Amino acid sequence: xxxxxxxxxxxxFIKGAGxxxxxxxAGLPVLAEETPQEIINKSRVVLIRNRDVVSGDxxxxxxxxxxxxxxxxxxxxxxxxxxxxxxxxxxxxxxVGIKSNVWKYxxxxxxxxxxxxxxxxxxxxxxxxxxIDDRDVLGNVxxxxxxxxxxxxPMRTHAWSGVGSLVKNYIMFVENPPDYHDDACxxxxxxxxxxxxxxxxxxxxxxxxxxxxxxxxPHHFDKAYVWSYNGLIVSTDPVAAxxxxxxxxxxxxxxxxxxxxxxxxxxxxxxxxxREYHLGNSNPGKIDLIRLGWENDILI
Amino acid sequence: MLAQENAAKDLLSGxxxxxxxxxxxxxxFVLCWCGxxxxxxxxxxTDLFPLQISSCECQADTATYDRETIFDYIDGxxxxxxxxxxxxxAVANYVCGDGAKLRIELFDMGSDADAYGVFSxxxxxxxxxxxxxxxxxxxxxxxxxxxxxxxxxVEESDASAGEMLLAAASTVSQxxxxxxxxxxxxxxLPSDNLVPYSDRYCHLHQALNYHYYxxxxxxxxxxxxxxxxxxxxxxxxxxxxxxxxxxxxxASSAAASFMQTILLGAKNAEPMSLASGKFAxxxxxxxxLIIVLESPSVQSALNIGELxxxxxxxxxxxxx
Lengths: 300, 320
Fold this sequence. Notes:
The complex is a heterodimer of chains A (300) and B (320). With 300 residues, chain A is of the alpha/beta class. Chain A contains nine helices and eight strands. Chain A has one domain. Chain A has helices spanning 7-26, 37-40, 62-77, 82-89, 110-122, 141-144, 182-185, 238-257, 268-275; strands at 43-49, 96-99, 130-133, 148-158, 162-164, 201-212, 231-235, 287-293. In chain A, strands 1, 2, 3, 4, 5, 6, 7 and 8 form an eight-stranded mixed sheet that branches. Chain A is globular, with a radius of gyration of 18 Å. With 320 residues, chain B is α+β, with helices and mostly antiparallel strands. Helix content of chain B is 33%, strand content 24%. In chain B, strands 1, 2, 3, 4, 5, 6, 7 and 8 form an eight-stranded antiparallel sheet that branches. Chain B has a six-stranded antiparallel sheet with strand order 9-10-11-14-13-12, with helices on both faces. Chain B is elongated, with a radius of gyration of 23 Å. The chains are: A alpha/beta (300), B alpha+beta (320).
């Protein structure tokens, strides 16, 4: 099991006040009088890594993914049992859509989808009230009547938006994605105002197991530009989670290229999601980053 | 094309031997076919795929995507192609004798210039020998030829991948019209201190922002009727941006917008220090704008501007 860094003090700190901050970012009810303002304004992000979760031949260990997700949830919500964290964000009466990503070269791994599904079911949601989908969310009857969404995808460089991010992952909730492509997809955060989405996202999981830090040509994929980072980034704030992921990608590019080579195009939709749409926090000063597990080459 | 056909008929009437007639018929066929290719008339792209490449057989699942459906194939990155005069892409999968999988994507970009433009988009190196130029990076080989941009990729990159990609690309290249003409704007770039393969050809401000983030707003009034090339120069990473507008009035309007928004009121061709500490300038000559960005000094901005001005002036003096 991974050893949380500063676990005791941080957990103590998180208990009570911290959960309210999480609730605010997720759009959940918050007892404001219990929470200092400076804590409310911060977004908590958990970065958890495990050295063994991806094997040398690229296979992902499902049991370790589950363990990582459970530990991340406990750190994020300040509880001793993972299932209690899930019960805090998912009610048995909820209808849950798990928004995944099926991009053929680097999809959300089945192991991550399964780990989420396990806990949603364990939280008491009926099997018929939970679905995993990407391209057909508009036609999926579970997503159509969803009361809660879990958002998950791998981070990768992208030729039109800088990176494929959690904020961007909701593009399939519109009939015509090109409507959001202007200015390097600057206005992607508008997606989060759609009736099918607004206020429903309970958790965001940015998959950093084998992220992609560079493109070959406008749309191609080459295994040479992914690496085993072996991490998950978990938060109720998609912007904060994306900001952390983006920093890791940028640092990896610096190391790989031996120079500061900016993303093309710049991934400004993440900062704009904060600055103009107030979807979450992109400013590092407003992100409470908790690092858990394997620290080698953590890049942040 | 009519002129080509008439010329070929005249040629044919002058021939006396059957051998010459036969040769002339071939010439006529090639001229007509190339004419069709050049002018963007309908071509069934899937017909251009070889059925067999060495031990690799073309599978039956060939598919095509147009400007509207390209997102079904390559999601938002399809905008890169749509920022040019992209018509459609055909995709063919091949399975080889040793089980290796090969994919060929054949993009009809509408013109040679736009085929070059998309090729230049993310190019880091360029080799000659296939089409107008090619780049082999890892598991992908891309080249441009005539109005086509072609990507050949293998699923698993191993020691033999490069050889397989080169063989496949050469085979496809033989089935395409051979002539490939780079955009004339590229010729206006001064060659002194130009960083090799750094030129990027595009039309829209979103595409320009990909290569160099200028502004959220379209301050240069770029659209599908404008042509732009951005290139890197030494010393430092000075950038030279040449933009060609349909007419002088459009260029004047864009120059005024750029000077007001980015250069904060600088005069024509006058380098201005920006917040980054680097220098930028903008000069209008007829329907062209010459823009220098990220220059480390006033002098280097003046130097590159002067070289570009001479190239544009020479081009214009030739009646272009």
